C-alpha cells in the first residue's frame, strides 16, 4: 500500500460515516478509527504492521498532513447542531469593516437577532441575523469569500 | 471575445447557450434556484451557483442575486435567454453600469420597443406599415366617428389602459359605433379606472408572421427570413414553421425590407424579431418588436445554412460586425413545443417526475431539451420541456418527419402535448397550410386511443 492509497482509504472511511474500519491485506494491517468522543471528528490512524520487512515510510505518515474530509465522519455529532445557511448569494464577511472585530467567534454565545455576518451583493451589505440562540461551534466559510444561496455558514449548538 | 458568460436563465435555453459557449471556448456560469439543482444546465456549465429559493422573483428575476453571481464568478457578460430579465431595461442598464456586457438590447432600445405606443410611433416614423387607426387617444365620440370612417370598417375599439381582451369592441358598421363606444368605455372604467379609447383597423383572419433580424454596432442590419407562428392557444404559440405557407417571394421581400428598415432606423444591435400581422390580402402591419432571442429560433437556424443564432448574438455583443447579407429559407422546418400539459384536460400543467424518456433522432430531427429520465419537473416555472424540430426539403416531408419523430418520442411519468402535436400534424387545415390565428378556436382533441394491453 502506498501513501496515496492510504489517503484515499482514509477519505473513503471518513465519507462513509463508519467509526472504525480494520483492513488486513497481504502483509499490512490497518485500522482507521474516526471520532474520539469530543465531537471534533478527527481521524486517527493506528498502524499495526508485522515487524519484519515493512518499509519505514508507513510509520512516517504524519497524521496532521493527511487531508481528510471530516464532515461525514462527524455527522453523528453534528446532527444536534444547527447549520446557519446563507439566505442570499454574495460575498461573506465576518466583520462590518476591515478594521473591526468579527461579529462572532467560535465559542461565542449568540441569541436570536444577533448579527452573525454581513453578505455583500452588488455593493449592498446585508446583515445576516441569527434565527436561533446558542453557541458558535464552527465558522464554515473564510472571510471575504463568495457564498451561494443555502450555503452552510455556521454550525451552532442550540441551547 | 468574452472569457466567461453567465446565463441568467434556466431550462432548455440555458443549455442551448451553454453549448454554444463551450463550442466557442467561452467559460459558462449557470445560475439556479434550489428547485433546479438537478437540472441539466447546472451540470453542463463550467461553473454553477445557487442564487435562491424556487420562486422566480426570488431567484431568476432577482436582479441583485444575478449581479452578485456575476461578480463572484467574474463573468464578463450575461446572456439573459428569453423571458425572465431578457427585456428588462433596468437590468440591461445595471449590467452596463457594472461593466458586464448584456447580450441583448440596450436599456434605451428595450424601453423604446417595449412600450406599444412608442414602438408604433417609432415605426411610423421609420416608414414601416402599422395597423392603421387613431393617433393616440380619441377625445370624444364625434372624433371617434370621424376616425372610424377614415380608418375604414371593420375597426377595433380598444381601451388605452386595456388588456386581457377587456375594453375591446369589434365594430363592423357605423350604426354600432355608439353602442360600442359607450359599453367599451364603461367596461374599461370599471376594470382599469380609465376609459381612454383608441381605434385600430380590425385585421380579418390575421396570420402572425415574424421576421428574424440581426443588427450590429455599425448600424447595419439584415434579415434571416420569416417564421409563421399563427397556431396559438390563448396567445401562447404551440408550433412554428418556416417558410410560412402563406408567404410569397414578393411578400417576403417587402416584409424583410421593412424589418431591416425598422432595425436600422432604431440602430438595433443584436438578434431581434419584428412581428407582423398579415391579413388575407397579404397586407402586413407592424405588431411589435422582441428585443431578445426567441423560443422558436431553431427553425430559422435549420433553414439558412445552419446558422448558430446564439453564436451570432455573442459575436455581435463582442463587437464583431455582421456579414450584412439577407437570408431566405432554403429548407422547410417545423418546431413543436412539447409541454408537460394534458391536452385532453384543457392543457392543464402536469409537473412531476419523468420516469421514462426516449428522444427521437435520425435524419432531419433536432431536439432541444433540458429534461431526462429521472428528472422531476418543478412546478414553479413554465411547462415547456422540449422543442422538437424537424427539417426537410419540402413542407410535406417536414410534416411526415415530425409525425415519425413524435411517434418515437417516449415520455412517461408526466402527461405531455405529444398527442396534440400528432393530431395537429394530421389535421387537414394544418396540412393544407391554410391557417390563421383563429386556428385553435376550432380545434378539438380526438378521444385518446385505447391502450393496447
Task: Give a short synopsis of this structure.
The complex is a heterodimer of chains A (159) and B (453). With 159 residues, chain A is mainly beta.
The residue-averaged pLDDT of chain A reads 75
Strand order of the largest sheet of chain A: 4-11-9-6
Oligomer: heterodimer
Q: Radius of gyration of chain A over alpha carbons? A: 20 Å
Shape of chain A: elongated
Question: How would you describe the overall organization of this protein?
Answer:
The complex is a heterodimer of chains A (159) and B (453). Chain A folds into two domains: 75 residues, no CATH class; 77 residues, OB fold (Dihydrolipoamide Acetyltransferase, E2P). Chain A is 11% helix and 36% strand. In chain A, the strands form three sheets. Chain A has a four-stranded antiparallel beta sheet, with no helix packed on it. Chain A has 159 residues and is mainly beta. Chain A is built from two helices and eleven strands; from the N terminus they run H-E-E-E-H-E-E-E-E-E-E-E-E. With 453 residues, chain B is an alpha+beta fold. Chain B has three domains: 100 residues, 3-Layer(aba) Sandwich (Rossmann fold), CATH 3.40.50; 61 residues, 2-Layer Sandwich (Dna Ligase, domain 1), CATH 3.30.1490.20; 236 residues, ATP-grasp fold, B domain (D-amino Acid Aminotransferase, Chain A, domain 1, 2-Layer Sandwich). In chain B, helix 4 packs antiparallel against helix 5 and helix 12 runs antiparallel to helix 13. The longest helix of chain B has 17 residues. Chain B is globular, with a radius of gyration of 23 Å. Classes of the chains: A mainly beta (159), B alpha+beta (453). Chains A and B meet through loops of A and strand 3 and helix 3 of B.
Amino acid at each position: 500500500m502506498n501513501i496515496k492509497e492510504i489517503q484515499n482509504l482514509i477519505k473513503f472511511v471518513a465519507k462513509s460515516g463508519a467509526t472504525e474500519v480494520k483492513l488486513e491485506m497481504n502483509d499490512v494491517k490497518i485500522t482507521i478509527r474516526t471520532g474520539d468522543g469530543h465531537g471534533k471528528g478527527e481521524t486517527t490512524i493506528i498502524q499495526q504492521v508485522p515487524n519484519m520487512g515493512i518499509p519505514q515510510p508507513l510509520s512516517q505518515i504524519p497524521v496532521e498532513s493527511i487531508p481528510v474530509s471530516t464532515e461525514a465522519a462527524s455527522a453523528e455529532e453534528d446532527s444536534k447542531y444547527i447549520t446557519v445557511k446563507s439566505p442570499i448569494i454574495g460575498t461573506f464577511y465576518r466583520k462590518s469593516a476591515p478594521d473591526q472585530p468579527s461579529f462572532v467567534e467560535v465559542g461565542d454565545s449568540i441569541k436570536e437577532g444577533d448579527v452573525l455576518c454581513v453578505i455583500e451583493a452588488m455593493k449592498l451589505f446585508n446583515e445576516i441575523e441569527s434565527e436561533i440562540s446558542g453557541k458558535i461551534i464552527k465558522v464554515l466559510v473564510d472571510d471575504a469569500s463568495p457564498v451561494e444561496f443555502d450555503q452552510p455558514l455556521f454550525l451552532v449548538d442550540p441551547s | 471575445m468574452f472569457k466567461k458568460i453567465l446565463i441568467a436563465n434556466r431550462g432548455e435555453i440555458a443549455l442551448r447557450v451553454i453549448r454554444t459557449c463551450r463550442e466557442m471556448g467561452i467559460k459558462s456560469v449557470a445560475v439556479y434556484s434550489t428547485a433546479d439543482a438537478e437540472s441539466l444546465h447546472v451540470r453542463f456549465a463550467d461553473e454553477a451557483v445557487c442564487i435562491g429559493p424556487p420562486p422566480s422573483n426570488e431567484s431568476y428575476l432577482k436582479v441583485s442575486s444575478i449581479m452578485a453571481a456575476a461578480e463572484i464568478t467574474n463573468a464578463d457578460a450575461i446572456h439573459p435567454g428569453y423571458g425572465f430579465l431578457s427585456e428588462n431595461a433596468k437590468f440591461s442598464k445595471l449590467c452596463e453600469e457594472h461593466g458586464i456586457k448584456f447580450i441583448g438590447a440596450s436599456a434605451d432600445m428595450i424601453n423604446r420597443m417595449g412600450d406599444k405606443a412608442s414602438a408604433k410611433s417609432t415605426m411610423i416614423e421609420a416608414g414601416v406599415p402599422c395597423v392603421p387607426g387613431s393617433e393616440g387617444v380619441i377625445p370624444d365620440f364625434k372624433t371617434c366617428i370621424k376616425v372610424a370612417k377614415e380608418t375604414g370598417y371593420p375597426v377595433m375599439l380598444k381601451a388605452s389602459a386595456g388588456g386581457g381582451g377587456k375594453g375591446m369592441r369589434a365594430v363592423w358598421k357605423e350604426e354600432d359605433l355608439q353602442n360600442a363606444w359607450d359599453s367599451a368605455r364603461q367596461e374599461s372604467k370599471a376594470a382599469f379606472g380609465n376609459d381612454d379609447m383608441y381605434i385600430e383597423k380590425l385585421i380579418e383572419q390575421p396570420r402572425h408572421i415574424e421576421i428574424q433580424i440581426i443588427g450590429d454596432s455599425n448600424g447595419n442590419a439584415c434579415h434571416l427570413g420569416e417564421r409563421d407562428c399563427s397556431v396559438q392557444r390563448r396567445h401562447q404559440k404551440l408550433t412554428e414553421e418556416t417558410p410560412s405557407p402563406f408567404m410569397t417571394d414578393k411578400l417576403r421581400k417587402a416584409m424583410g425590407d421593412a424589418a431591416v428598415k425598422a432595425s436600422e432606423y432604431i440602430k438595433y444591435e443584436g438578434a431581434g424579431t419584428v412581428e407582423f400581422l398579415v391579413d388575407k390580402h397579404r397586407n402586413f402591419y407592424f405588431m411589435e418588436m422582441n428585443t431578445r432571442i426567441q423560443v422558436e429560433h431553431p427553425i430559422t437556424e435549420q433553414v439558412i445554412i445552419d446558422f448558430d443564432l446564439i453564436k451570432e448574438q455573442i459575436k455581435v455583443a463582442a463587437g464583431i460586425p455582421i456579414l450584412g447579407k439577407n437570408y431566405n429559407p432554403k429548407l422547410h422546418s417545423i418546431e413543436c413545443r412539447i409541454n408537460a400539459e394534458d391536452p385532453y384536460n384543457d392543457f392543464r400543467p402536469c409537473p412531476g417526475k419523468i420516469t421514462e424518456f426516449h428522444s427521437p433522432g435520425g435524419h432531419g430531427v433536432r431536439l432541444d431539451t433540458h429534461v431526462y429520465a429521472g428528472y422531476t419537473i418543478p412546478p414553479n416555472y413554465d411547462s415547456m420541456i422540449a422543442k422538437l424540430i424537424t427539417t426537410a426539403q419540402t413542407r410535406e416531408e417536414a410534416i411526415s418527419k415530425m409525425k415519425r419523430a413524435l411517434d418515437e418520442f417516449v415520455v412517461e411519468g408526466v402527461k405531455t402535448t405529444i398527442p396534440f402535436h400528432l393530431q395537429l400534424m394530421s389535421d387537414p387545415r394544418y396540412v393544407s397550410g391554410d391557417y390563421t390565428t383563429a386556428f385553435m378556436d376550432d380545434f378539438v382533441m380526438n378521444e385518446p386511443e385505447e391502450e393496447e394491453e
